[in-house]
Specification:
CATH topology: Rossmann fold
CATH class: Alpha Beta
Number of helices: 8
CATH architecture: 3-Layer(aba) Sandwich
Number of strands: 7
Distance between the termini: 37 Å
Shape: globular
Number of domains: 1
Mean pLDDT: 94
Helix content: 40-55%
Structural class: alpha/beta
Strand content: 5-15%
Largest sheet: 7 strands, parallel
């Protein structure tokens, strides 16, 4: 496996949740990490806490200029780019009767299109270092929850993207993979405005029996899987489930 030390890694959505946990884990292993997010105070605070191995950019990955600024900062910070963790995204939960073209296109842009275009921007640097791209999928692609279709189909699109892109850019030395997390407490549900932090925690705690290991996961456990895909030199086109057995469909 590749050594993590001195790698240059971009983590989008690094101000909280899975992105923050990933940035902390990779920096602790000696990687030069560049994080971004739309909330300047969040990404600045995380980067400051991590220290010299982490830098930050206020960036919205749906914005072309922001994507360019992020890549430029990462190259300045790490001397190139070894890995891109495309973690930034949003939640859209609504039943069929409430769908609108505007809301559906927005979540597709945030969860799929932005990551594709950022991958395009980073590709020359990844190719130079035989690097990797990691996308964040969702258990919603294998467990069907009513009202979750707008979000679930964006993650289904990412799963297809992982395989096709891996086949396309593998000959150029760039690997592509994805993580499919089980239930993990992050801010994504709260950003929809449907629940507050306490409600989100209660909702996820109630899903513990949907996992064969009888508990929800942690962001740190998802970060472990992300690190593996970044370092695994002969693994590409694969989706790694880090879900406590949730995808097995068992309810205890």
């Amino acid at each position: 496996m590749r050594e993590l030390k001195d790698m240059s890694v971009v983590v989008t959505g690094g101000g909280s949740g899975i992105g923050e946990a990933t940035a902390r884990r990779l920096a602790a292993g000696g990687a030069m990490v560049t994080i971004c997010g739309r909330r300047e105070e969040k990404v600045r605070s995380v980067a400051t806490e991590i220290g010299e191995f982490c830098t930050w950019v206020r960036a919205d990955v749906t914005n072309a200029d922001d994507r360019s600024a992020l890549i430029t900062r990462a190259v300045e910070h790490g001397g190139g780019i070894d890995a891109l963790v495309s973690n930034a995204g949003n939640m859209e939960r609504s039943p069929i009767g409430e769908w609108t073209a505007e809301r559906l296109l927005k979540v597709f842009n945030e969860n799929v299109v932005a990551g594709m275009l950022l991958s395009q921007e980073a590709l020359p640097y990844l190719e130079a270092r035989r690097g990797s791209i990691v996308f964040i999928g969702s258990i919603y692609t294998v467990r069907s929850y009513p009202g979750a279709a707008p979000y679930a189909v964006t993650k289904g699109a990412l799963e297809t993207l992982i395989r096709v892109l891996a086949a396309e850019i593998g000959p150029r030395g760039v690997r592509v993979g994805g993580i499919r997390p089980g239930a993990v407490l992050t801010e994504i549900n709260q950003r929809t405005g449907l629940v507050d932090g306490e409600q989100a925690a209660a909702r996820l705690a109630a899903m513990a029996d949907h996992h064969v290991l009888r508990r929800i996961g942690t962001t740190a456990e998802i970060a472990e899987g992300i690190e593996y895909l970044i370092r695994a030199e002969w693994t590409t086109g694969e989706l790694l489930s880090v879900d406590g057995g949730m995808g097995l469909g068992v309810i205890s």
